[in-house]
């Protein structure tokens, strides 16, 4: 440890390491304040600036959680903020807030490492409701990251808009002759069968994240 680091800065640095190790993304200023029992966010910001001046961290002030720990192990992966565009069913299809391409704006974002979205830039996130994809390790309450797509190959996990229901669901896609099978990854649940013209693929699954309790 740098001899010029104060006790408070050492505490913050250790908190950063533990938080990132546990959650795989950096804490917010408020997280640091609460986790280190610091009196105000301005005190947190002051000590973060000192740690940055000493070359122990790097901050991206354009990103709310843009803190990287520097040192022997190199920089943390770059943090990206992915728009959260609503809820998707992994169970019976349910409505989402906006049906037209899930909308083009979002007030909520999810901060993740770049490798979580495989380096892709045009990615959106949806919160899962239901357990039909549990055997693919996608559970109720998880966040899934998808890239926009209008087509898929058999077996792909996709966000599908069902036009007759006005609803969207997450399933494995299979085009079987005159019908489409939307297959859950849950052996206790039945697939959805529908006509190809009733299906509009809107996104392909990239990865999922289980928020900490």
Report the CATH architecture of the largest domain. Ribbon
The fourth-level CATH homologous superfamily of the largest domain is: Umud Fragment, subunit A
Poorly predicted regions: 94-104
Helix content: 10-25%
Q: Give the beta-strand count.
A: 11
Give the SSE order as H and E letters.
HHHEEEEEEEEEEE
Structural class: alpha+beta
Figure out the total of helices.
3
Strand portion: 25-35%
- First and last CA, distance: 32 Å
Overall mean pLDDT:
83
Query: Could you state the oligomeric state of the chains shown?
Result: single chain
- Taken together, the total number of domains comes to 2
**Overall form:** elongated
Strand order of the largest sheet: 4-3-5-6-11-7-8-9-10
CATH level 3 topology of the largest domain = Umud Fragment, subunit A
Radius of gyration based on Cα positions? 21 Å
CATH class of the largest domain: Mainly Beta
What is the makeup of the main sheet?
9 strands, mixed
What would you say this structure looks like, in words?
- With about 210 residues, this protein is α+β, with helices and mostly antiparallel strands.
- The protein has two domains: about 5-70, Orthogonal Bundle (Arc Repressor Mutant, subunit A), CATH 1.10.10; about 80-210, Umud Fragment, subunit A (Ribbon), CATH 2.10.109.
- It is about 15% helix and about 35% strand.
- The chain has three helices and eleven strands, in the order αααβββββββββββ.
- The strands form two sheets. A nine-stranded mixed sheet has the order 4-3-5-6-11-7-8-9-10, with no helix packed on it. Strands 1-2 form a two-stranded antiparallel ribbon.
- β1 and β2 (about 65-70) form a beta hairpin.
- The longest helix has 17 residues, at about 5-25.
């Amino acid at each position: 440890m740098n001899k010029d680091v104060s006790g408070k800065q050492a505490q913050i640095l250790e908190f950063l390491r533990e938080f990132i190790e546990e959650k795989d993304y950096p804490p917010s200023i408020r997280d640091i304040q609460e986790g280190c029992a610091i009196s105000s966010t301005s005190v947190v910001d002051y000590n973060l600036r000192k740690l940055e001046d000493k070359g122990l961290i790097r901050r991206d002030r354009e990103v709310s959680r843009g803190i990287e720990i520097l040192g022997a192990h190199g920089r943390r992966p770059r943090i990206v903020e992915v728009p959260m565009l609503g809820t998707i069913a992994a169970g019976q299809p349910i409505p989402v807030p906006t049906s037209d391409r899930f909308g083009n704006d979002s007030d909520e974002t999810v901060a993740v490492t770049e490798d979580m979205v495989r380096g892709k830039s045009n990615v959106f996130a949806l919160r899962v409701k239901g357990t039909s994809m549990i055997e693919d390790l996608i559970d109720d309450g998880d966040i899934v990251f998808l890239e926009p797509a209008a087509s898929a190959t058999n077996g792909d996990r996709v966000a599908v808009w069902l036009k007759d229901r006005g609803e969207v669901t997450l399933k494995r896609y299979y085009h079987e002759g005159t019908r489409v099978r939307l297959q859950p990854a849950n052996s206790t649940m039945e697939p959805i069968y529908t006509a190809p013209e009733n299906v509009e693929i809107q996104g392909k699954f990239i990865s999922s994240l289980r928020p900490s309790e």
